[in-house]
Amino acid sequence: MTGLPELELTVEEYLSGNRVDTFLGKHLRNYSPWRIQRIVQNGGATIDGRVVDVIERLYAGQRVRVRLLEPPDKLIAPHDADLEILFEDPWIMVINKPAGVICHPVGDYQSDTLCHHIQAHLDRQSLGPGVMRPGIVHRLDRQTSGAIVVTKDHLSHRMLSIEFQNERVSKAYLALAQGTIPGDEKMIDYPIGQSRGDTILMSAKAGAIDAKPSRTRIRVLQRFSQHTFVEAKPFTGRNHQIRVHLAEIGHPIVGDEYYLPFGKLKPKRPDYPAEFPWLEEVPNTVDPETGLTRHFLHAYRLEFSHPITEEWMTFHAPLTPDLSAALHRLSKQASVTS
Q1: Could you give the number of structural domains in the chain?
Q2: Which among 141, 153, 256, 287 is annotated as catalytic?
Q3: CATH of the domain at 105
Q4: Is-catalytic flag, 141?
Q5: In terms of residue numbers, what domain contains 31?
Q6: pTM (two decimals)
């Protein structure tokens, strides 16, 4: 059994008193509990050279060595892709996510997600395929670009998740809204919940399901004849929050595929017959004024306390070429008409 990957792990305070298989399950997130138990039962886990039993409990500070006698069985298939990495250390990565990429496998999207791309990157750094697993702490919509933080280990994932849950992370977005928003700054304060009759879309209308308090501060950066370029800072973390809030005040984001002014929703795509699956591939429409084929929303600033070093960190994601081109196009139109 020589040549097998071997890890040495230290039991963290919060995992003290847990069984060895539970402890290993936190560290080896691509391994199912059943496979971890098999490894332990076959002598793969030791403390000070002593083989441990699967039901043995571990305590803070103990050092556990584990030989990976079997490969992972929950592996996210690695998919090589270019990653624009803004920052990386042994615990986290901050990435400028491109538009059109979904964050993790869900529904019909079971390959070529950001998770698959990061898995390929982590496999090149680790002892073997699947030894490390990307931890998605927060998400960006598929067509939203910008800064997203991903963890490499379970403790960083736990600590950052707590920070996000307690809303101790600062995020700011750049958005292009339809119409001219009056005033230089405003706080949008409408509860957001699930839209009635839909399992995906959200609503700030009265009667929304399980509505929760939601606040977004809007600061105007530039006005055009029929658009407003804004910084949007959410103080809560609701799904589609900025998109819903801007639409609710009558200024939906340019190119938004779902939300219309004052809480109205775009008509759903018709259901196509199963025998004509190619009809489901509806091409992106082009916004005639900006030339965009997706919504104008970009996570340009992300700030948080590092989960291990506790250093406060700030990251900026450059605006993508298509969004920069859209602003340039509007500026040229303004100069021509002025």
Answers
A1: 2
A2: 141
A3: 3.30.2350.10
A4: yes
A5: 6-67
A6: 0.88
